[in-house]
């Protein structure tokens, strides 16, 4: 097998030709609008729940539950994928993006069964988050404990 010899400038020209530049300005705007609309939906739901008589803390919980359920539903219907394709990183607003990732894993591995398919593969995504959450809680708890001793 013969190796292709190419100068750095020829390689750079080849890369530019094969990988067209992405429209970063348009991508940035779409991500901002998508993430903003998801957050606006959350705020609207919060106002709705508070209007219906929920306390502020309860309304926040209801908003989280609603956004998780809506994201899972839209993922199951194949709509969230189109939203993510349009909005890019804006669709990764933490709670909806995580719900989408968990639901997509569950749907993808459904054919392998509930235990080895859905259960095991959902925790490929959730596992690191849970481990980090527990570890961070211990570290923050230790810092709080140490700072209250003095």
Describe the structure.
This protein is mostly helical and 150 residues long. It has a domain of 85 residues. The chain is 80% helix and 0% strand. Helix 2 crosses helix 3, helix 3 packs parallel to helix 5 and helix 5 runs antiparallel to helix 6. The protein is extended and about 65 Å long. 11% of the residues are buried. The model has no long low-confidence stretch (mean pLDDT 86).
Number of strands: 0
Could you state the order of secondary-structure elements as H and E?
HHHHHH
The end-to-end distance, rounded to whole angstroms, is 70 Å
| Helix and strand composition category | mainly alpha
Strand content: under 5%
Keywords:
mainly alpha
Topology:
Blueprint: H1 8-18, H2 24-51, H3 56-76, H4 79-87, H5 94-108, H6 114-149
